Fold these 2 entries.
Entry 1:
Amino acid sequence: MDAKTPGQLLTTLLKDRGWTKRTLALVLGVDESVVTRLVSDKRPITAELGLVLEEIFTIPAERFLELQKEYDLAMARIAFRPDPGRANRAQIFGALPISEMVKRGWLRVENPRDVGEVEGEVARFFNAESVGEVEFLPHAAKRTQLAVNATPAQLAWLYRVRAIAEEMLVAPFTPAAGRAAIEKLKPLMGAPEESRKVPRILAEAGVRFVLVESLSSAKIDGACMWLAEDAPVIGMSMRFDRIDNFWFVLRHELEHVLCGHGRSAPILDIDLDGRDSGEVVEEEKVANAAASAFCVPPEKLAGFIARKAPFFAERDILGFAKTIGVHPGLIAGQLQHQIKRYDLFRSHLVKIRSSIAPSAMVDGWGDVAPVGM
């Protein structure tokens, strides 16, 4: 029975038996008009009716119901009108933490449930002419390559960093100024409160330094990007508020700046605490090596470990930190990484964000940067 619809199947069955529609109506105990509508596919076959027809014609009810489903879907496809906006909304509301972005002041909407208002703000936030041109949408006609392989949430964080950086006034950058800044930063690593000087030193060197709290789903540590040939930007999330992580990520991003990384597309650094996990590209290896050497010179750390392993006494860590002029937390962080014991020395990993935030451009942790207001 090569029937394409449930009505065609019923017509074939009636013909094979020599039945009229009236005969089937009498068997079913219904009006003949009901059978007429069934054979003309104007009335659907329900699961209950399918079982009745199975009993009458010994054709599995599933056969009737499968044909009904296929017929319904075919008719729906004929009537269906594609809506590109629906696909956009699926991407925007499914991939972006809209509520969090509204709460953080990134999206200025009166009613987060007003889809049109939210879409307009998303377009504005991503510097797009319309919501369909937001670059992470698969069919967006224009790409800025602001972030390669970034998730929508990570891309949003980068856009926020960039928007804040564009409103900052700093000196023009030169590699010599960048190297000089690093020398000025070294003496600050002995105490958390000294980090308050970091934003000024970087600004004088032509580096825009921005602290933006990460979106909950972004898991970003830092980023390096360029607004122009002489305008590098370093964004940090302070996702881990620890003195060792701060100095490692900062020096890591500074190495990207000195090497000119991130000019064509931003360098986005994720999970630098697990920097040896998986395959690491050459740019990241270079930045990791520079950051490790800056925090604790590797030859001195290797010598310390060789002398003191496997037991590292408190007085030894304090003495080593004093000898090389850094906070004990930097020794603790490097030791944890080297010996893979992240449960040790945690008392030295002091918080630092409260020391640096008052002198930095900050967005998050209750503060909203005055961007475009």
Note: The chain has three domains: 6-79, 84-133, 158-363.
Entry 2:
Amino acid sequence: MKKVAWSEHGRFKLQLLARHGLVIEPESVESIVKNSQQVEPGYKGRKIVQGRLDESRVMRVVYEESATTMTIITLYPGKRERYEKTKI
């Protein structure tokens, strides 16, 4: 399994979300990246995956992948109705 790394911006987003009352554990985000069944193409060759936060929201994670590492670039919550094509 590839190693998961964090960009400075990815770490900042965790802190920013926590300041707004949405505390997300880094391990939860890493689990989404490692275990997601659906991967969408993103800007500049990046990949986007998501996992369920609660009944109405998902966490979207944007990452870059190399031969040995998956680097989390950013993350953001979104409404399930907007992003889910099939139920998680």
Note: The chain has one domain: 3-83.
